[in-house]
Amino acid sequence: EARAVIDGNGEVRGHRLTEKEIECVLLKERVKQVLPSAIASSEFAFVLQSKVDMNSECHSAELLMRWKSPSLGLVSPAVFIPVAEDGPEILALSQLALNKACEIISNVKQKGKDVTIAVNISANFLTHSTFESALLAVTTKYNVEPKRLILEITESALIKDVAFATSLLQKLSLKGFQFSIDDFGTGYSSLAYLQKLSIHEIKIDKSFVMNLESSVTSQSIVKIIIDLSRAINARVVAEGVETNWQAEFLTSHGCDVLQGFFFHKPQDTEKWQAAVNLGEKSTLIV
Ligand code: C2E
Ligand code: MG
Ligand code: MG
Ligand code: MG
């Protein structure tokens, strides 16, 4: 029956799908069906994962979306964001994320502290005609300085239209917004655009970090990404740091910021804010 759904959907596959692949396609179909009502009934929430910066006293964290669907249970953003991106749903979800990020920055500011919040911006939102005005409207509404927001975008978002992305990033950088390239090394990197774009940060994809200890090739790739970041004056972040060994390798090779379960798991936004208010600066253990 699963096979019929997939074929009926026009998916032409040369090979027999594995059970896992069938499950994934079916889940995405269900997600597509229930996403509009999930948005209407506000089923989405957010968590924050700290970004541990060796050079800065400022607190920083990435905002990550969570969805607990009454019918589907917990669904990963890695599953529902790509589905949302195929339709207008991504606009509503993106707006929720921008609002939440600015609300957090503004709440903490009222208690006298500055934080930087990173928001994942999907390709279809970045290139949408409403992106710039939505960004400016939300920062104005919450009275948030643009430099308090880091917009995490992927390489694929940038190469959709390089000329457009170049001018957009330049314009928004001049206003103070920071841009980070997420999952760096997994997309279609072009060294030419890196030089042209206003990039403040590069995030080494967790697949390289995960293989660091066992793979000399991953070690070389990570070193090259760190050098590359230096060359374009960008801060370099490693995501998915899970072990002391990885943290030591990364810091000793000049990585500026570390993020991963070894330091902090994504946590409740209220708890994160409370920790910041208490002055609990995420310290390095290595
Ligand atoms: P991402 O931006 O690359 O986020 C990193 C993902 O790795 C997160 O998964 C995070 O929980 C997970 N992670 C963090 N530390 C570790 C670690 O030490 N080990 C391992 N194995 N994983 C770790 P999550 O929250 O499931 O998010 C998956 C992706 O969904 C994100 O990748 C991002 O592309 C997307 N996403 C999440 N929230 C949003 C959002 O608000 N808007 C948009 N557009 N996309 C979002
Ligand atoms: Mg991210
Ligand atoms: Mg990432
Ligand atoms: Mg990712």
Automatic annotation (TrEMBL):
Residues 28-280 form the EAL domain. Putative oxygen sensor; modulates the activity of FixJ, a transcriptional activator of nitrogen fixation fixK gene. FixL probably acts as a kinase that phosphorylates FixJ. This is Sensor protein FixL. The chain holds residues 443 to 728 of 728 of the full protein.
